[in-house]
Design goal:
alpha+beta, four-stranded antiparallel β-sheet, 40 helices, 57 strands
């Protein structure tokens, strides 16, 4: 918003803190509707800085952060329930939270805790939020409505809270929500609280009397003083209340020490009627560093500075030494900041002014005006250059002297006698200060803006009111009848007004109390027009006064010649309502441009026509123009205002509902510049008369912007996504909430005084929607388009509630809802804005109104009726039918024969139908006896009623049935399906009623009818249940769907749908339901799923309860039991410092820790689960063996892996229980290898330690040595145990030893340097293929980063080292099983096969990519380049890098497919030569173990060292092993 001068939206009203200044003195912000307006106040004059946009409803609180370094942070609370944190300097949101359940009424940022924001709501809940850690805490000290709160500047935990009933409470947010003091003394709303900026409670001389005299209010309300308050240094607190008093409270004593009563100040220069009693708002502010001075508001907007040191009667000083410096309405908020050497005070008021005061001189430094409504009209004075009039929806006119040098916001306000939205403005072309205005309620008047008494002088008001909103005013030459009379007897220019009813009035400015003239009469007389003229929507006089252009509702524009308004031409270009017409100025170098006329309508296109040929033509008859001179297209919504540049020729600016203003070069039809600074729809635009680069625009965001064409980055209106974003930006404006209001009695909206807010009528002011910050919303709904630009097609009517706002209540009034926009109505009698009766005539008192009216005419006519009736009755003997003689006396049929009576009834019935009372017509037809016709006519028109249906049986059975059927159809069209079904039941059409309800998704009602009226076995009932169940299942209502399936006798489907959600409770219920229904297998499956979910949440007790219901799940119970014991052992071995969010739920089983793990498990099985017999164990073993789990991978969930391991260990425990050790060893190996495959090395070590604490020797002795398979499994298991031991020795040398490794051969860091993170990384990520070797390689490469090894050792260290070496070597000797020549060769062959397979896979991938590229190519060159690229990529792929070559500097040639196939065949043949027993069971990577042993250095026995070196030389030709072993071996 750089370079933009703004008249912003008005600050919100009735909030304890909705404005604040930043601590660095640069910014001042205030809440304006749902946005926060920021002003830069660091200079002598304020400038608009920007807006914080994000809330969707009225903002109720705003505060800056006071902590150093965070002066740009601020917070705001809103009626949308959220609190937002902003970076004011960047105009960006930082954080948002919504912790309140009720409307937020108070907010403050703690001055001591940099991230603490405290807020309170209308129900008494206080929320403390620490935004840096996103933590919050709620307090509920009192069940009362909070009005204000403030945090102490001296104690970070103290918060003072003021309530609606006058209570003040001080709480400590750190002491378990303890209320320190309840301060009682005020008897009405607490409007503001302020802490003394200086700590301490020294007794000033002026306070001695109150401190020494005990009084009722001075007692400590909570009894004795607490130790906290007695020992801490206290602080004073000031409170301002609606009871017109200010109280000073002692926080240590918990009592009032001073009471200040507001003095009856004399208003100086106020703009309010002194007879009107205004609601008081008493805000207080304690300036920083001044412990004895307080600033407060007063009755009428004055500010008072209180000196608390004065004895006796308190002395106060009035701020503002000269006339007009004070506010004219009550002040809501005060905030101060130290700027350079001055302390500035900022105030916001109901008079919509923001003022800055210098506390050293008590004078007003500057005033910033603001706007409280839509900016409907802008007008520059043609006489007083730079004087801009602004018509606003807050019932006031601002006159802004834009050229003022001393004050850039030199604004005068005019409000007298307006009382409605100002929708149109026009300056007199020659008379200075003469400003005409039009309002929303149809009023037209003229203000004198420059006379000395103009400030309080009411305007002249025309006695002729429009019936609807005035949209356009224009000064022009007089037309008949004002043209008659001599020179000087009539004004040279008259005022023309156009309004929503489509009429243009001519007002005589010299005699506004006279009747205005409708110019349509002159137009009809001059042009001999007989037909009805179109509704006028816009009026514009050519600057020379010779031509008048009228825009019409049908989109046409008519041009007339003054003074008799002869019609020259009609422009038939637009097809929708005309919103704006502007003539080009005449002071350019090209006089022919003066005939250009630009027009805009509800559609988005602007047309420019050249009427030069029309004016200079000689045609007698009016012409019709259908082709434009220029077309300006680009806007995406309706055009609201136009303005020609007075500095250029053919340059136009347009305002549009798309939220932008566009500058056009009309002659080139080119867009030049687009302004997008507003946050709403533009309603008015004016080009500056003094600056060619400046334009002024007004919008429905309550603001006027002055912007510069040369500084805009956009050249054309937004299209596509940008226009959508602007629409979203406008949709951020608060929505009007629907609230029904009672209709006023005896007072119409046109007469209602809705704008007395500006002249003292407080209750009426608060009803103005767009004017105040309480509801803070313009009266119009955006969707209803009832604002000014819609002209005649719509009108704005206000809510007509006569109830005033309850000042004793803090509940803010909700926004009113405007009545629906009504179209232009022909009959002027119907223009009166009433309720629904305006569309429907009032119901007559008599059912025969025509006859009754005829019998109340004049006496002569009644006598004539008697004579005519006597003559007719005389001829009755000759002619039975006397009705022809009563053609013009139908009402006399009441006294003659039946035929005449029937005619009279027909006439009365027709009258009722025309006036919208069909029920009276039907009643008359019933009297006549034509009931059948009434029923048929009502059925055809869809006007059947319950009464007609009830009396239809009197016509006959068939008529009754057909009437009911027709009524049912009518009800269906009205979407009253249940009522329609009820009527179908009355004629026994049950199936039709059920089908009707079913089709319209009234399944519950349909089932009730079907079950009550049909046979139980009727298939339609089951169909209803199943159809409804399917719909419920689709919508996620599984429980209800299950009940439907049960009702349809489909329990299986009910079980399925219940289990669909998959949570514990649903699965448990579904399992029980399946068990009840006899589906035992399904129930067992669901119970097992439920138990698995409970296992994931570590609830073993619940899982066992679910499983024990099924005998078939006994094996799973054993698995879950072992899983629980295993988890308990693992948690004991590796206690976790961080607590789990869900604590485990263990059984309280007695465990025998002295026996092995398997024996302990079996004891629990026998004691707790009842596994008493071997037969039970064998059955469970067979059951578990039938279940196969997929192999584990590194992506598997740890709890899932642990469950699968528990399954394997359960099989092992059952095998040990039945002494089948050959099977047990395979199961134990499966558990170990599963943890190894999952990449969890630590888990593998723990399982080996728990199951085999002493190794595999004891297990080997129990095996059958003749069973080669079990011996192979045992060898593999020994290998994994040794594998874990090997890494354990490598990672965990003794802590008290020095570096024992050979520094040349062992680059592993010492234990103090090897972090836990490194250990966990290796343990969690190692895999037999790559990680340990890569880890060793990385440690080798990082060798120079390790600390220098101390080479000087003492003799004791040498002794310790020798002992440790002996122990390590003895343990490493147990790792001989890992160095198997056969297994190393087998693994090397498997690696060769995997390498060849990978190369083949890469070749296939490259071939597919090449083929796809060939298909996508469209020319030969592209194909050639793609093939070349593919071949290069393929050769790159087929040529491994140096890390995969046997020789570092050797590069392999690309390998062909036959060669690869040959290599793969040879490797597979070699693999087949190995014995099968080596391939059955997995084994740790032998080469990896060799590398680890070599890294062990001196700890490795020489024999093992030599054996590991030999294996690496022989089989370590793979790139990864060659690189790692290069430093140990010499190839």
């Amino acid at each position: 918003m750089a370079g933009v001068r703004v008249l912003p939206a008005s600050p919100n009203w009735y909030s304890s803190r909705c404005s604040d200044a930043s601590s660095d003195g640069r910014l001042f912000g205030f809440a304006a509707r749902h946005r926060v307006c920021l002003l830069d106040v660091s200079a002598a004059a304020p400038t608009f800085y920007g807006e914080l946009i994000g809330h969707t409803e009225r903002i109720s609180g705003f505060a800056f952060c006071r902590c150093p370094g965070q002066s740009s942070l601020c917070a705001s609370s809103s009626d949308d329930g959220s609190v937002r944190i902003w970076d004011a300097e960047a105009l960006e949101p930082v954080d948002e939270y919504a912790l309140h359940q009720n409307a937020i009424s108070a907010l403050h940022w703690s001055p001591l805790v940099k991230d603490l924001i405290v807020s309170g709501d209308e129900k008494g809940v206080v929320v403390c939020y620490w935004h840096n850690r996103s933590d919050s805490q709620q307090f509920f000290p009192e069940p009362r409505t909070i009005f204000c709160l403030t945090c102490s500047p001296h104690h970070e935990n103290l918060v003072a809270i003021g309530y609606k009933d006058g209570m003040v409470v001080i709480i400590d947010i750190s002491r378990k929500r303890e209320v320190l003091h309840r301060l009682r003394g005020h008897d009405d709303e607490i409007h503001c609280l302020a802490w003394c900026p200086v700590p301490g409670e020294e007794r000033l001389s002026a306070w001695q009397d109150e401190l020494q005299v005990p009084s009722e209010e001075g007692r400590v309300p909570n009894g004795e003083l607490t130790q906290y308050t007695a020992t801490k240094k206290g602080c004073y607190l000031a409170s301002g209340s609606k009871d017109q008093t200010i109280r000073i409270w002692s926080c240590t004593r918990g009592r009032s020490v001073m009471t200040l009563k507001l003095p009856p100040t004399k208003r100086r220069g106020g703009a309010i009627d002194p007879a009107v009693k205004e609601r008081i708002w008493l805000t207080v502010h304690w300036p920083s560093g001044r412990s004895t001075e307080i600033v407060s508001s007063s009755f009428g907007g004055e500010l008072l500075l209180w000196d608390l040191t004065q004895p006796g009667k308190r002395k106060w000083t009035l701020l503002g030494s000269s006339e007009g410096q004070n506010h004219s309405r009550i002040v809501f908020n005060l905030s101060s900041v130290k700027c350079q050497d001055k302390e500035l005070l900022f105030s916001i008021s109901m008079d919509r002014d923001v003022k800055c005061w210098d506390l050293s001189t008590l004078d007003c430094s500057w005033t910033m005006p603001s706007l409280g409504g839509f900016v409907y009209s802008l007008a520059f004075s043609p006489v007083d250059t730079g004087c801009l009039a602004v018509g606003v929806g807050d019932s006031m006119i601002r006159v802004w002297n834009t050229l003022s040098m001393n004050n850039i916001y030199d604004v005068k306000t005019f409000w007298q006698s307006i009382k409605s939205k100002v929708t149109a403005l026009s300056w007199h072309p020659t008379k200075e200060g003469c400003l005409a205005f039009g309002t929303d309620d149809g009023k037209v008047g003229i203000f004198d803006t420059i006379s000395s008494s103009a400030k309080n002088k009411p305007p002249q008001i025309s006695s002729t009111y429009h019936k609807k909103t005035v949209y356009t005013l224009a000064w022009g030459p007089p037309t008949p009848p004002l043209t008659s009379g001599g020179e000087g007897e009539q004004p040279s220019v008259t005022l023309y007004s156009c309004a929503g009813e489509g009429i243009v009035f001519q007002h005589n400015p010299w005699k506004l109390n006279g009747e205005a003239n409708d110019i349509n009469k002159v137009i009809q007389d001059t042009n001999s027009i007989k037909h009805k003229l179109p509704a006028r929507t816009e009026i514009s006089w050519k600057p020379d006064g010779k031509l008048l252009a009228l825009g019409n509702e049908d989109g046409s524009i008519e041009t007339f010649q003054a003074p008799n308004l002869k019609l020259l031409c009609t422009i038939q270009q637009h097809h929708k309502l005309i919103n704006a017409i502007r003539w080009h100025h005449e002071h350019g170098s090209q006089p022919e441009l003066g005939y250009l006329i630009a027009s805009g309508s509800i559609n988005a296109t602007i047309y420019v026509h050249n009427l030069k040929s029309v004016v200079e033509g000689t045609s007698e008859s009016p012409l019709t123009i259908t082709e434009p001179f220029r077309t300006l297209a680009g806007h995406t919504a309706k055009i609201t205002s136009l303005s020609w540049s007075p500095h250029h020729e053919g340059r136009l600016v347009s305002a549009c509902y798309d939220g932008t203003a566009q500058v056009w070069d009309v002659m080139k039809e080119e867009p030049l510049c687009n302004y997008r600074g507003h946050q709403g729809r533009l309603l008015s635009v004016q080009w500056s008369p003094v600056d060619p680069d400046s334009v002024y625009t007004g919008a429905d965001d309550f603001s006027v912007h002055k912007w510069y064409i040369s500084k805009q980055e956009h050249t054309r209106p937004p299209q596509g996504k940008k226009s959508i974003e602007l629409e979203k930006k406008r949709s951020m404006q608060p929505k009007v909430k629907t609230k029904k209001k009672k209709k006023p009695i005896g007072k119409s909206p046109a007469k209602q005084d809705l704008s007395d807010a500006t002249n003292g009528d407080e209750s009426m002011k608060e009803m103005l929607l767009e004017e105040n910050g309480v509801s803070d919303r313009e009266g119009e709904k955006p969707a209803q388009e009832a604002e000014m630009p819609d002209k005649v097609s719509t009108t704005v009517s206000k809510d007509t509630s006569s109830s005033a706002y309850d000042h004793s209540s803090f509940s803010l009034p909700k926004p009113f809802v405007t009545q629906k926009a009504t179209p232009v109505i022909k009959d002027p009698l119907k223009e009166k804005p009433t309720s629904y009766a305006s569309l429907k005539k009032r119901k007559p008192r008599s059912i025969l109104p025509f006859s009754t009216f005829m019998d109340h005419r004049s006496k002569d006519e009644l006598h004539e009726d008697c004579l005519r009736l006597a003559a007719c009755l005389k001829t009755k003997d000759n002619n039975e039918d006397v009705s022809p003689d009563l053609e013009d006396r139908i009402h006399l049929g009441l006294f003659t024969d039946r035929a005449s009576l029937h005619k009279m009834i027909d006439v009365e019935g027709k009258h009722h139908l025309e006036n919208g009372h069909p029920e009276l017509f039907q009643q008359l037809m019933l009297w006549k006896g034509d009931m059948k016709g009434v029923l048929q006519a009502a059925a055809e028109r869809g006007e059947l009623t319950d009464q007609l249906v009830a009396i239809s049986p009197m016509v006959g059975y068939q008529a009754w049935v057909s009437t009911v059927e027709a009524f049912a159809k009518q009800l269906c069209f009205q979407e009253q399906y249940v009522k329609a079904a009820t009527h179908l039941l009355s004629i026994h059409k049950v199936y039709e009623a059920v089908e009707l309800l079913k089709v319209n998704n009234f399944y519950r009602e349909a089932i009730v009818i079907a079950k009550a009226r049909l046979r139980p076995e009727d298939p339609i009932l089951k169909d209803l249940y199943t159809t409804w169940a399917a719909l419920l299942e689709k919508d996620g209502h599984y429980s209800m769907a299950a009940k439907c399936y049960l009702g349809a006798s489909s329990p299986y489907d009910a079980v399925k749908v219940l289990a669909k959600k998959g949570d514990v409770t649903s699965l448990r219920t579904a399992a029980e339901l399946a068990l009840i229904s006899g589906e035992e297998e399904l129930s067992a499956n669901l119970s097992f799923r439920c138990a698995q979910n409970l296992l994931l949440s570590r609830n073993w007790v619940g899982a066992q309860e679910v499983l024990q219901q099924h005998k078939t799940l006994f094996g799973q119970r054993l698995v879950f039991c072992l899983n629980e014991l295993l988890c308990k052992c693992l948690s004991e071995r590796n206690p976790c410092d961080q607590k789990s969010p869900v604590p485990p739920c263990y059984h309280s089983w007695k465990l025998n820790r002295e026996v092995s793990f398997f024996d302990m498990v079996i004891e629990v099985w026998q004691n707790a689960l009842g596994m008493d017999t071997t037969q039970q164990a064998t059955g469970a073993q067979e059951q578990l063996r039938s279940i196969e789990h997929p192999p584990s991978t590194s992506n598997a969930h740890p709890k899932q892996v642990l469950y699968h391991i528990s399954h394997d260990l359960t099989l092992a425990a059952l095998s040990s229980h039945t002494a089948t050790w050959d099977e047990a060893v395979k199961s134990i190996l499966g558990a170990v290898t599963r943890s190894y495959d999952a990449g969890n090395f630590t888990l593998m070590q723990d399982i080996c330690s728990i199951i085999l604490p002493k190794g595999c020797d004891n297990l080997r002795h129990k095996l059958d040595s003749t069973n080669s398979q079990s011996m192979d499994a045992c060898r593999s298991l020994e290998g994994f145990v040794a594998y874990g031991l090997l890494y354990d020795l490598w990672w965990n040398p003794p802590k008290d030893s020095s570096i024992l490794q050979n520094p040349v051969l062992d680059p592993v860091p010492c234990p103090s340097e090897q972090t836990a993170l490194e250990r966990s990384y290796i343990s969690n990520h190692c895999s037999p293929e790559e990680t340990p070797d890569q880890t060793a390689t990385e440690m080798d490469e990082n060798r120079c980063a390790t600390t220098e090894i101390c080479r000087c050792e003492t003799e004791s260290d040498s002794t310790t080292r020798s002992l440790y070496l002996e122990d390590s070597q003895s343990k490493l000797n147990g790792c001989k099983v890992l160095l198997s020549e056969e297994i190393a060769a087998l693994q090397n062959t498997q690696r060769d096969i995997a390498e060849v397979q990978q190369i083949l896979a890469d070749m296939i991938h490259q071939h597919q990519q090449q083929r796809n590229n060939l298909q996508e190519s469209t020319n030969g060159s592209t194909q050639e380049s793609n093939m070349q690229q593919s071949s290069e990529t393929e050769s790159d792929k087929l040529c491994p890098d140096s890390s995969q070559l046997t020789c570092k500097d050797e590069v392999k040639e690309p390998v062909t497919l036959p060669e690869l196939t040959k290599q793969l065949l040879q490797a597979k043949q070699k693999l087949a030569e190995f014995p099968d027993n080596l391939k059955v069971f997995p084994f740790p990577d032998v080469l990896e173990c060799c590398l680890v042993l070599l890294h062990a250095g001196s700890r490795c026995p020489p024999q093992l060292h030599q054996q590991a070196s030999d294996l690496l030389r022989k089989h370590g030709n793979a790139g990864i092993y060659e690189k790692a072993a290069r430093r140990f071996l010499k190839f």
